[in-house]
Structures are given as C-alpha cells and as structure tokens.
C-alpha cells in the first residue's frame, strides 16, 4: 500500500474521508506548482495581496506587493509611506553583505587544536566548498572565510561565511557545510551538527527617513511619537508590540517576494536582543531644530531575488516584476522601508487617537463577510457598521437581515 506522501492530492483527500463539499473546496484551490512544493499537499491556502503605492527609497518609487491577512496592514504602510514622501522618502545608509553564516558544531574538542587543524587544512576546506557548488564560484560567490570560535571549555564552532550573491542561499550553504564537514573526518565523533545560521551578523541593513514634523500633525504629535519610541527601548513588552508592527509590513513583503519570513523574523528578534535586552528595531527622534522627525531601522536581512521558493512560486516572480526586478540590495532596502513605514503609521496612531478607529473601519468589511454578506452587500454592511459605530458581528447580521428583507419586499 502506498504511503500518504506517495498519494496524489486527490487520493489524499479521499483518504481523509471528507464530505463531498469539503473535497470539492480543497480541490478547487489546488494548483500544479504547489503540488511539487511540499509533502502531503492537499490544497493552496490563499492570502490577500495588496499594494503599497509609491514607496520612495533612495530616490526611486516602488509599487510594493504585500501579502497579509491583517486588515489594517496595507493601509498603515500606505499611510506611513505617504508621510515619509512629504520628506524625501527613505534612504539606505548601510547595505549589509549578501553573506550567510554556517556552523559546524563540535563538542569535546579544544578550540586551539581545532584552530590548528583548520589552519592546516584551509586549502582543502575551500576546495571542498568549491567542488560542492562550482556554479557559485564561477559567479564570483561562494565560501569567503573560515573561522574558529570557542563557545566554552567543551564546545567550539567552525564558522563558514558564504557569499550567496542574488540568492538567499540556504540550500547552497547547507550543501557546502556538509561537504566541508568531510574534511574533519578525524573529528567525526565530535561533530554534533552542521547547519547554516540565520543570525545574519554581516548582513545588517539600515534604512532612515527624515519627515517634516508638519507631516505627522505638528510638533506636539512628533514629540509624542518620539516619546513612544523611547518606550520601545526601555520596555521589552512594548518593544515586542512595536516590532510586531514593523514585521506587519516587512514580513508581508518578504512573503510576497517568495522569501523566508521565519528566517527574517528570527534574525530580527535576535538582533533586537543584541544588547542583552529586547528592544525595538527602530528609533524615532526629533532633529535638533525640531523641524524633522528622524526615524531609523536596522536589522540583518538574508534574502534573495532568485532561487529557493522564488523559482517555484509564479506569484513571487510576478511580484518581483511588479517591484521592477530589484537587485538584492534594493529589495532589502524596500523591505526595511516598508517596515519603517508601518512603524511610523503605528506610532502616530498609538500616540494619537489610538488604532481602533482605523482598525475597526478595516475590520468592518471582514465582519460583514463573517455575517454572511457577499458581493455589493459587503461594503454596504461595512458602511452601516461604521455609521452606527457598532462594529460587531451581531450588528452586521441585523443590518444584513434588514437589507435582505428590504430587497424581498
Ligand atoms: C498592530 O498590528 C500593530 C501595532 O500594535 C504596532 C504598535 O503598537 O507599534 C499597532
């Protein structure tokens, strides 16, 4: 008998013993591309995609695809970007390298012995790395550095640094690591594992913006944004929420571009804790003359514009086209600028009249759908909910019921 993973998507749905409508629903949402992508595939889970219009980064305007389920995220990004455009938009001040780290983890070895071994075998290490990924080396990418790090008395790491070029390079890195590992055959017993690191120490990118205070509602409003921003530096609980708001935008673009949002977020959160305390990834402060509100975001980004899931996801390829086929460096700047745009909109709302009014307006359409509204009814119910200032499902059901009654009479 075939194992579940060996079945076709249709056979899997049969095996799951689902009702006909359930089977039909899952089948309707299948796609050929996705069938090859993961194990035990049954269907595609779709998420909405919206556009952030005219994000200005380093003097260039981008139309930015965002994939998210949260109603207010695209609106917040557009709001933040249009405020930044009242200045000169966003500017990249640190590009970061397209390098990925990898670790071979040793237990029960002395760091000095390991360092001596690496020094003696360095040519062989580079040769194995080259043989594992010759195409990378031909493009001028590949292994750049090998370094031994002592963790404690009993543990040490051989760190590899690989230039991944236009790709994120996770697979390439792991292939190289496994090839290089074979050089250490006399240490075989001590190797606990070999895997890339998502930390991205050398891939830190910085994006800044300088917004006229008038664009955020004047000096008082700008001062409140500055004050709120300091809470993200001193209260880890506030920092978590602020970074969540940053990732609302950033991860939505990471996702739209077919990149690995878990890797980006893990690196971001680790970077946010680099001082020993978890802090916001952004800082906002008034300029000395109090004319501008200056914002800055900084974090590692290991992403790519080709390879990995991008090669298998037509939507990701089209989204990169929508972005104007950016270079890796450009995409990094766009990602951080979007995160900072969302952050600005959130800080402005939270330190101003709160987020609920804007959020609930966006939520009204979702609630209308939950109440059973379809087609034109959705906006009509949402408008009524906003008008009545009662944005909840019960009210939506009442409004919908009344509407249907009216049409029947
Ligand atoms: C909501 O999804 C995100 C915010 O909570 C972010 C923040 O508080 O900075 C508004």
From TrEMBL:
It catalyses: (R)-mevalonate + 2 NAD(+) + CoA = (3S)-3-hydroxy-3-methylglutaryl-CoA + 2 NADH + 2 H(+). Belongs to the HMG-CoA reductase family. Pathway: Metabolic intermediate metabolism; (R)-mevalonate degradation; (S)-3-hydroxy-3-methylglutaryl-CoA from (R)-mevalonate: step 1/1. Pfam families: HMG-CoA_red (PF00368). InterPro entries: HMG_CoA_Rdtase (IPR002202), HMG_CoA_Rdtase_bac-typ (IPR004553), HMG_CoA_Rdtase_cat_sf (IPR023074), HMG_CoA_Rdtase_NAD(P)-bd_sf (IPR009023), HMG_CoA_Rdtase_sub-bd_dom_sf (IPR009029). One of its GO terms (molecular function) is hydroxymethylglutaryl-CoA reductase (NADH) activity. This is 3-hydroxy-3-methylglutaryl coenzyme A reductase. The lineage of its organism: Bacteria, Bacillati, Bacillota, Bacilli, Lactobacillales. Keywords: NAD, Oxidoreductase. Gene3D superfamilies: 1.10.8.660, 3-hydroxy-3-methylglutaryl-coenzyme A Reductase, Chain A, domain 2. It comes from the Bacteria. CDD domains: HMG-CoA_reductase_classII. It comes from Fructobacillus apis. Its EC number is 1.1.1.88.
């Amino acid at each position: 008998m075939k194992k579940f993973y060996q079945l076709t998507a249709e056979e899997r749905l049969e095996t799951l013993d689902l009702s006909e409508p359930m089977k039909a629903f899952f089948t309707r949402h299948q796609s050929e591309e996705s069938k090859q992508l993961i194990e035990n595939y049954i269907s595609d889970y779709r998420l909405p995609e919206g556009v952030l219009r005219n994000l200005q980064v380093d003097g260039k305007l981008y139309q930015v695809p965002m994939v998210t389920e949260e109603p207010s995220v695209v609106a917040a990004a557009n709001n933040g970007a249009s405020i930044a455009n009242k200045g000169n938009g966003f500017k990249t001040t640190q590009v970061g390298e397209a390098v990925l780290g990898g670790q071979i983890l040793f237990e029960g070895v002395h760091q000095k012995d390991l360092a001596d071994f690496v020094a003696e075998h360095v040519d062989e290490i580079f040769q194995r790395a080259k043989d594992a990924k010759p195409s990378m080396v031909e493009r001028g990418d590949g292994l750049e550095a090998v370094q031994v790090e002592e963790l404690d008395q009993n543990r040490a790491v051989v760190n590899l640094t690989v230039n991944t070029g236009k790709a994120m390079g996770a697979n390439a890195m792991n292939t190289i690591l496994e090839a290089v590992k074979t050089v250490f055959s006399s240490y075989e017993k001590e190797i606990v594992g070999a895997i890339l690191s998502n930390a991205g120490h050398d891939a830190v990118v910085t994006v800044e913006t300088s917004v006229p205070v008038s664009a955020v509602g004047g000096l008082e409003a700008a001062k409140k944004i500055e004050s709120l921003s300091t809470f993200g530096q001193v209260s880890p609980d506030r920092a978590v929420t602020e970074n969540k708001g940053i990732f609302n935008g950033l991860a939505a673009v990471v996702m739209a571009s077919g990149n690995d949002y878990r890797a980006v977020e893990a690196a971001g959160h680790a970077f946010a804790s680099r001082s020993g305390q978890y802090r916001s990834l952004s800082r906002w402060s008034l300029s000395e003359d109090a004319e501008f509100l200056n914002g800055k975001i900084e974090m590692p980004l290991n992403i790519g514009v080709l390879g990995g899931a991008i090669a298998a996801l037509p939507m990701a390829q089209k989204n990169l086209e929508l972005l104007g086929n950016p270079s890796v460096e450009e995409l990094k700047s766009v990602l951080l600028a979007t995160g900072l745009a969302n952050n600005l909109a959130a800080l402005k709302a939270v330190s101003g009249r709160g987020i609920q009014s804007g959020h609930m307006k966006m939520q009204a359409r979702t609630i209308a759908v939950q109440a059973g509204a379809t087609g034109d009814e959705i906006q009509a119910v949402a408008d009524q909910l906003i008008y009545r200032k009662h944005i909840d499902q019960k009210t939506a059901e009442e409004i919908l019921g009344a509407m249907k009654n009216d049409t029947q009479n």
